[in-house]
Amino acid sequence: MRFALDENLGRRAARVLRAAGHDVMLLAEEGLRGAGDAKVIEATGAADRVLVTLDFDFANPVRFAPRTHGGIVVIVLPSPPTLDDVEAAMATFVRGLAVATPKDAIWMVRFDRIRLFEEPAPESARAFS
Fold first, then answer.
1. What do you get for the CA distance between the two ends of the chain, in Å?
2. Residue 43 near residue 30, CB atoms below 8 Å
3. Cα–Cα distance, 101 to 38 (Å, whole number)
4. Hey, where are the domains in the chain?
5. Predicted TM-score (pTM) of this structure
6. How many CB atoms are closer than 10 A to CB 96?
7. Phi and psi based region of residue 84 (left: phi greater than 0; alpha: psi -120 to 50; beta: remaining)
8. What is the residue-level pLDDT of the chain in tens, covering all 129 positions?
């Protein structure tokens, strides 16, 4: 899978994803350091990448509705976070990638679980009893 890591996640997170076989781009190296949320979403969508960030602004499914972007993963860490916290959350994220994709959705990843925000199924696809 193709990911774009926000400037608030560093090379350690990139190494974890690359070691799992994923293609990772660092937004800071692409001239997007300090860019606003709209610019970040635009750039990651244009590059066909899922954004991985620590920024809770991206966790809002009303502002960033599923399928209006390439996908968003918000890593949720305790305050203050340690390197072990980052590694634990990234390990949970990689395990989640083995069973699902964040493409076109929002994932909130904690060290022990992943919360998904996905587009609801259309009325015609819903089952009724």
1. 37
2. yes
3. 22
4. 2-118
5. 0.88
6. 17
7. alpha
8. 999 999 999 888 999 999 999 999 999 888 888 888 999 999 999 999 999 999 999 998 888 887 888 899 999 999 999 989 998 999 999 999 999 999 999 999 999 999 998 766 555 444 333
